[in-house]
Design a protein that fits this description.
heterotrimer; A mainly alpha (about 220); B alpha+beta (about 250); C alpha+beta (about 625); B: about 250 residues; alpha+beta; Ubiquitin-like (UB roll); Fumarate Reductase Iron-sulfur Protein, Chain B, domain 2; five-stranded mixed beta sheet; two-stranded antiparallel ribbon; 7 strands; about 35% helix; C: about 625 residues; Flavocytochrome C3, Chain A, domain 1; Methane Monooxygenase Hydroxylase, Chain G, domain 1; five-stranded parallel beta sheet; 17 helices; 20 strands
């Protein structure tokens, strides 16, 4: 235990925690996006998918148990990811008490330089998203279990859709740097695989962002109802 | 050619410091950036003003003593080049050039553009060596080393310890410096017995000095006069992970 | 003053082994009671400090740089020699010994050079074990290259950065000892004087270059590994901070200075581009393997080189030395270049350059091959001159880059003052009148890793001296002198900068005591230098205070010492009425213009004793006897 604690105390340890939790969350957003696309298969399919998520693990686990375990893992990942990020940001700020008059990046990507902003945007979005589609407290006509209705009705409000789209762009930037970066941090990256990880980050980013954004867009355009 | 310089002047560590404007007139494009400073300083001394202090020694790009941030870029606009090897032909007549010291908490300013990089020495002292007392070595050819490993170790070993990586890193991290040494020794068979202990101790020392963490910006690699790759950072991360969790 | 070389008896190949057995040892428990002060952290200083600390001594190490890793050994490019005979090409300890003695034009001590050749093999072992990434072949074994002055491949190298890698190896060993608390490291500290009490070296006075604090450090012995004095010429390939202050102060305290006029000129450096030039950059001599050296046949020809037809070029080395052509030794190539430029045939700014033309080689071998062989050198040339050497011949000119002379030391590396040891380029030993390529690194490491740690123990074991504290009155006296001198420099507030003086007298030295010398010139120099020195002490302008980082003050102190050093160099060059190795006296040459040695009168080391700043120095001679090599005259026709 003390070894883990010592490990976490180091800068690399915190980065590794960010990378591992980032990997969990990355896996989650990919699966989540794939599940979202079921909306195009109609109300029955996506509602059944929702039920499947709750029934997962049966009969070993009782109804909703596995889903709650997954939620706990995800929440813990988010908490650790944010805690490590905040500590690292503070550490980095302390390391450069006096800045330069001006400093233009040479090869750092826009995505890498805006992680500190795309992160909080995603955090705010996640809170809203949970209240919107999971708890339903900020939804105009929430019906428990009827995902299809909730999605269509939710995205008919244009500014809600707009916020979702903006948040997805933020997520895209975060993923684009984060996915490549996590392999670098975990030490899996090397010259031979560097290009693969960069492409993986780009492809995954485009897929997640495009897949997710397509839903509010099609709803607003009235293509599904 | 003529250029206008905005140079950071700071009398001592305790002084607050400020930018001062100097005109460098009739300078030759064949001068190195440091030779231009020599000329400016000769002029300052003639006027009875304190010359600008800056670190430099070999002036051929290998000792790692010189270093300044020029228009926001450590070692200036030419890639793979230290300030002493940067020539004025890389600038245009009439340019305004801002010159600042390396900025990082572990590199406190001593005077003007001179900073204290003792933190680097302390990181090496923590483990950047192979423990082999004089006289105890086996024959040099006793352990063959595959050429690709030796070449890669040499890539890492070419670090000159100038500190540009720290200066350029938005986080003030010393990852590239530390990773270069960890990788150099970790790639060689001679470095294996102490490999895990070395990386742990060096990372602890690096953090203790107050350097920032790595956000994989890769700015360090862009300014490194020896073009040392951030792949070595991935290598160090891997070694550190193994050393911390698997022993 | 008596010069006791203390060379052990017996056959040359057994001297070192016998000596090591005969030397007294300090018991392990007693070692920590001794404090050894090491000044300088280059190859010699760092390796010595690390090895002494490993043995158990208390070590204090000083360097003027901000880190011991930056000492100028770092700039050596080519490689390091060792008689490993890994190539099976007939190399042996004896051959390396023989080549070194001959290359030095028979002005080095046989016993020392033999020991150097013996230890060369241990150095490579030690460095490889430390993790020095020497070049390797695909089989995983060490690669070698050949180098000037030898017919075997015995040079080990790490790309073009051998000095850097060896220094980082020594630095890592030193850092380990610093981390263990066995070496107290003082970077940004400059030695300003030596403290000698009752004929024994007892410490140093240093200046903290950040605070200006003058500090005394007491010890049982002092080791100087402070490098060479090439910067006496202002322009040289040395780092800007390299200086002679430590050895000069030791000389003024009673250490003999040997062969100070032996300075080596490297033929392939990048020429001066204007008055602003602050230092010179060397390019590896290997370029001469594929390059042809020429100047226009017409004086002051300003046409670009590709417009000068073949028939109007003078390939002067090929013309004068048909057998060796462009591959004549360093000194011959350098003098020939200066001669054609002095006659007005030179090219480039100020007419101080000759073409080194690889056009034929590029045509013959293709650009790709040339890029593989010399890519890094071409890049360096392009960076400095802004000219593309693939399209336009490079311009080169000789520059000073190594000094064979230095403080006189005996076989044990001890100077004429008891307890003062001198290692690396700072001493005069092993290279005679000319150093072979890739031998400087070897000597620095042999001294630091293997010789000094053994011999200094013998001295400590034999010498009874009470422990001293820096509050001793002798230290107070020296501190007062140092402070007084600093105050004097700061009080002048004249009209000229330190650099302007350094530049002027450097030019004087280059002109009259550079690569060729004659009586008239040396006498002119001996008149002009004291006059310029007098002006310096009246008209130099050093601003600021002592109690701060004051780079002008640092330079002023060093230049003041160079002024005095320069005079001694001229005395030595004048006294040595022969030509040998790098010391070329125009009066003494063969009809072919080759150096003409005078073994009957000058087969000796000239060791000078200080007799006061305004008095001529006193000459002592250590005669050299050659039992194992026969003295021959070189010829490269």
């Amino acid at each position: 235990m003390s070894r883990l604690f010592l490990f976490y105390r180091s800068s690399i340890g915190k980065k590794v925690v960010m990378a591992v939790t980032g990997l969990v969350l990355f896996g989650f957003v990919v699966v989540h996006m794939a599940g979202n696309l079921k909306v195009y298969q109609g109300a029955e399919k996506i509602n059944a998918y929702g039920e499947f998520l709750r029934a997962m693990g049966s009969p070993v686990f009782s109804h909703g148990q596995v889903l709650w375990i997954a939620r706990i893992v995800l929440l813990a990942s988010v908490a650790l990811h944010i805690m490590a990020a905040v500590q690292l940001i503070l550490m980095n700020r302390r390391a450069r008490p006096v800045g330069y008059t001006h400093q233009d990046p040479i090869q750092a990507t826009y995505a890498s330089r805006t992680m500190i902003w795309s992160g909080p945007v995603i955090a705010l979005f996640v809170i809203y998203h949970l209240l919107h589609f999971t708890a339903g407290t900020v939804h105009p006509s929430f019906r428990a279990g009827d995902i299809y209705h909730n999605v269509i009705a939710g995205f008919r409000v244009w500014y809600v859709s707009a916020f979702y789209i903006v948040a997805m762009v933020g997520l895209g930037f975060h993923l684009y740097h984060g996915v490549w970066s996590l392999f670098q941090t975990l030490g899996i990256n090397d010259v031979r695989v560097d290009r693969f990880f960069r492409r993986l980050a780009a492809v995954a980013t485009v897929a997640v962002v495009a897949g997710n954004i397509s839903i509010p867009v099609t709803v607003l355009l009235g293509l599904i109802s | 050619m003529d250029v206008t310089l905005h140079v950071w002047r700071q009398k001592s560590a305790a002084d607050r410091g400020r930018f001062v404007r100097y005109e460098a007139r009739n300078i030759s494009p064949d001068m190195s950036f440091l030779e231009m400073f020599d000329v400016v300083n000769e002029g300052l001394i003639a006027r009875g003003e304190d010359p600008i202090a800056f670190d430099h020694d070999c002036r051929e790009g290998i000792c790692g003593t010189c270093g300044m941030v020029i228009n926001g870029v450590a070692h200036g606009p030419r890639r793979g080049t230290t300030v002493c090897q940067l020539h004025l032909r890389s600038f245009r007549d009439g340019d305004t050039i801002t010159v600042e010291p390396w900025r990082a908490r572990p590199f406190p300013v001593i005077k003007d553009l001179v900073v204290d990089r003792g933190a680097f020495d302390r990181i090496i002292q923590a483990g950047g060596f192979i423990s082999v007392p004089t006289g105890s070595a086996p024959d040099a050819n006793a352990i063959p080393i595959p050429k690709p490993d030796a070449d890669l170790a040499m890539d890492a070993a070419s670090c000159i310890g100038c500190g540009a990586c720290v200066a350029a890193c938005p986080n003030g991290a010393a990852m590239l410096f530390t990773a270069a040494k960890v990788s150099h020794l970790g790639l060689l068979p001679q470095g294996q017995p102490e490999r895990r202990q070395r990386v742990r101790q060096m990372v602890v020392a690096m953090d203790r000095e107050g350097f920032g963490s790595c956000t994989n910006y890769a700015e360090c690699e862009a300014v490194c006069p020896k073009a040392i790759s951030i792949r070595f950072i991935a290598r160090m991360n891997r070694d550190y992970l193994k050393a911390s969790l698997m022993e | 003053m008596e010069l006791r070389a203390s060379v052990p008896s017996g056959p040359v190949e057994q001297k070192w082994d016998n000596h090591r057995f005969e030397m007294k040892l300090v018991s392990p428990a007693n070692k920590r009671k001794y404090t050894i002060l090491v000044v300088g952290s280059g190859l010699a200083g760092a390796s010595a400090a690390a090895s002494l600390a490993e043995l158990g001594y208390n070590v204090t190490c000083f360097c003027y740089q901000d880190s011991p890793r930056r000492a100028h050994s770092i700039a050596a490019q080519g490689g390091i020699n060792a008689a490993k005979n890994y190539r099976n090409d007939g190399d042996s300890v004896f051959r390396l010994f023989y080549d070194t003695i001959k290359g030095g034009d028979y002005r080095a001590r046989e016993a020392n050079v033999y020991r150097l050749a013996q230890l060369s093999v241990n150095i490579i072992d030690q460095c490889v074990a430390q993790g020095v990434p020497f070049a390797r072949e695909y089989g995983g074994l060490l690669d070698n290259r050949s180098f000037g002055g030898a017919q075997v491949s015995r040079t080990f190298y790490a790309r073009g950065q051998t000095g850097q890698q060896l220094l980082l190896g020594a630095y890592s060993a030193l850092s380990r000892q610093v981390g263990l608390g066995r070496v107290a490291m003082y970077p940004r500290h400059e030695m300003l004087d030596l403290v000698v009490i009752d004929g024994k070296t007892r410490g140093v006075v240093v200046r903290d270059m950040v605070t200006g604090q003058i500090e005394s450090h007491a010890g049982d012995a002092v080791v100087l590994g402070t490098g060479g004095y090439s910067n006496v010429f202002y322009l040289s390939t040395n780092a800007k901070g390299c200086n002679a202050t430590a050895i000069w102060r030791a000389y003024k305290r009673g250490a003999a200075m040997a062969n100070p006029s032996f300075t080596q000129i490297h033929p392939t450096c990048i020429p001066v581009s204007g008055d602003h030039q602050s230092k010179l950059t060397l390019m590896s001599e290997s370029l001469r393997n594929d390059g042809r050296i020429w100047v226009p046949q017409q004086k002051g020809d300003t046409r670009p080189p590709d417009r000068i037809p073949e028939a109007e070029r003078d390939y002067y080395l090929e013309r004068r030395y048909p057998a060796f052509g462009n591959l004549v030794p360093r000194d011959v190539a350098s003098r020939a270049a200066k001669a054609v430029c002095d006659e007005g045939f030179g090219v480039g700014p100020g007419g101080l350059g000759v073409y080194l033309d690889l056009t034929d080689a590029i045509k013959r071998l293709g650009e790709q091959v040339i890029r593989e062989r010399y890519g890094n050198l071409f890049e360096m040339y392009e960076r400095i001159t802004g000219e593309n050497p693939y399209e336009r011949p490079m311009r080169i000119y000789p520059a000073v880059h190594y000094t064979m002379g230095g403080l006189w030391v005996d076989y044990n590396l001890m100077s004429t003052i008891d307890g003062l040891y001198v290692i690396g380029e700072a001493n005069f030993s092993d290279h005679g009148a000319n150093r072979l390529g890739a031998s400087a690194l070897m000597q620095g490491l042999a001294d630091g890793y293997f010789i000094l740690p053994a011999t200094i123990g013998d001295y400590l074991a034999r010498t009874k001296q009470e422990k001293l504290d820096p509050s001793h009155s002798a230290f107070r006296r020296v501190e007062a002198e140092v402070t007084e001198r600093t105050k004097r420099l700061l009080a002048i507030r004249g009209k000229r900068t330190v650099d302007s003086f350094h530049r002027e007298f450097g030019r004087l030295m280059w002109e009259y005591c550079g690569m060729s010398r004659n009586v008239q010139g040396l006498q002119v120099a001996l008149e002009k230098i004291p006059a310029l020195r007098a002006e310096f002490w009246e008209n130099v302008n050093v601003l600021g205070a002592n109690e701060e980082l004051n780079q002008s003050l640092e330079k002023a102190g060093r230049v003041a010492d160079f002024f005095e050093f320069a005079e001694l160099m001229c005395h030595d060059a004048l006294e040595r009425a022969e030509s040998c190795g790098c010391h070329f006296r125009e009066e003494y040459q063969t009809p072919d213009g080759e150096a003409l040695r005078d073994d009957a009168d000058f087969a000796h080391v000239a060791a000078w004793e200080f007799a006061g700043v305004d008095n001529p120095p006193i000459l002592h001679k250590e005669s050299l006897a050659f039992q194992y090599v026969s003295l021959t005259q070189r010829s490269y026709k």
